[in-house]
Amino acid sequence: MLQKILTNQRARHAIWGTLIGLCSAAIFVVLLSAGLLDSLEFKTYDLRMKASHHAARGSGENVTLLYVDEPSLTTMKDMGISWPWPRELYAGALQFAKRGGARAVLFDLFFSEDSSYGVADDAAFAKGIAEGPPVFFVFFASKNEGQVPPDESEVVARARMPFGGSPPAFLPEAHSLMSVPIPAIAEHAAGFGNAQTQPDSDGIFRRIPLAFRMNDLALPQISLEVAGFVGDLGSIEWTSRSNLEIDGKRVPLDGSGNLMINYIGGVDAYPVYPLAQVLISNQQIAEGKKPDLDPSVLKDRVVIIGVAAPGLYDLKPTPLAHVYPGPEVHATVIDSLLRRSFITPLRLPAQILIVMAMALGAAAGLSQISRLSHIIALIAGIACAYAALAFALFWKGLWIPIAAPLAALVLSSFAVILRNYMTEGRRRRAIKHAFGQYLSPAVVSEISKDPDNVRMGGEEREITIFFSDIANFTTISETMTPTELVSRLCSYLTEVTSVITRREGTLDKYIGDAVMAFWGAPLPIADHAAHAVLSALDVQKALEAIPEFTTRIGIHTGRAVVGNVGSDLRFNYTAIGDTVNLASRLEGLNKKFGTRIIISETTFREAGDSVEARMIGRVRVKGRSEPIAVYEPLCAKGELGATAVEALAKFSAAMERFFAGDFVGACAAFKAISGGNDSVVAYYISLCDKYVAEPPEHFDGVITFSEK
User: Fold this and answer.
1) Where are the domains of the chain?
2) What confidence tens digit (pLDDT) does each residue in 593-648 have?
3) Among 631, 471, 599, 461, residue whose Cα is nearest residue 531
4) CATH architecture under which domain 451-640 falls
């Protein structure tokens, strides 16, 4: 019955675990596909970015930034030049960049209106553009409807990206351009690109579209335009929403077609110089002086000129810094494209598989576990291992989701735990009903906590068997009324049972006045032999209050088959085998020796460190051809008095004479033992007298008993 309970329960738990895992996975697959977990996932993205991206200040490759920062504004103001500066100053910056060998210059500034300093100022700047390194300018792509002015058509035509056909429909759409450079400046530009970027829903800039479409044209993000020119990247093809190929080499994108910005570090991860210092150094060179800043710092680099002063409002929060200069976003993307260093988002189908694996794995595993400590260890282990894997892969450039898989893990785990908690009561009641008749409450409670410790259905174990019987019970019963007899017997059985269960024994059955119990099953007990022998001593002490019931006990340790034995209608958790039979024979042997407890040599060997005992013979009992040594336990270890120790030594010496066949000497030795109430001594005196009168043939020290 219990086997069916446990087996069916495990099967039901496995089925329920699978169903719970599938439902949990389905919930989070829907949430994941709908993008409802993006904000949470982005937080884990930021944590991984902070943990793995720590470039030293100014160590970034390929790009250098020249900033209109607070020191530059202060320096120029001291020179009588207020913001906005005359545009001819930027011509000086371009001249400095050319002297240094810069590969290109990107102005992250807008020149959509004529200079407030007059036409000559724009002309001076235009001359600097024509004479300097390749220069790129930005504009804003707008979703607002509008016509592209004629003087801007040239900008659009020169910014368009080469596609074999129409641009992909999934590219973000724009209907007009804003802040396009004035014709005088745009005329000599090497290229143009969009500078408009949108942060994620929490205001953090983590990704950027590399292109957008306007009518039938694809226009680039300024970073892609500059990197394509400097790196000679060549043909561009979108093979799918999440895959861009440049010259046949993949650029990984997210599910919306955006490039994840692979920041290398915090603010000023790329070399940064104040623009005022650059202008002053260029003037010093023109005057034949040694410059404060050597132009060679710009050699083979893309130079980005932009603003970083807080008052000029080109600051963007990123995963690595809440205040981050906007030009460094362009610098990061340009550098990533040139170095081909990207964050690769895991594709949605693979993300779904991970979510399903986490939910199903957790639910299936927890459905077979009942202990809270094991449950917590499993959940924590899976979660920590997965999080560690996610961080390690991010370090290598692969972004796998954390939020959805761990949320699915938690939901499926909670659902399984809740279901187990709701069904645990029924489970424990079934176990207690099956075991409560013959196990101590403490053992039943332990089994109900973890039924996996119990393997039912005839398992072979090493156990210690205990048999007890009341001497002369038939004669005693004739002196009492049935009511009195039952009352006394119930008191007796209660006393014996309480000792057994207190010593962690399993009560097998009552056979009239007899009691059968065993130790070592259903839960293993390391010192089960000692528990059994000490229980027998405790029983004899406890029965001093019931003097009319003299109890004989036999104990043997060995292999036996334990399990439920019986029919579907009635069963008993019991032990069967030769070990049980021998324990029963030892109980009956007490009648021959006049003892109260007899244990086998196997039991004595296992329990010898816990009890004091004396070997009272080597016997051959009915039904067994092999002789065994039998012992009488006297007390717990260390409780034997000095007189008893002396008597035990004399008894052992007398037994040695008996085994040697010296019956005359043995009889004399037994008679020399003080105290006339030792039934074993009396037995051997009588036996020695018999053997002296009628010497046995081929005596080997073994006493054969042909009766029970």
Assistant:
1) 7-36+346-433, 53-344, 451-640, 641-708
2) 999 999 999 999 999 899 999 999 999 998 888 999 999 999 999 899 888 898 99
3) 599
4) 2-Layer Sandwich (3.30)
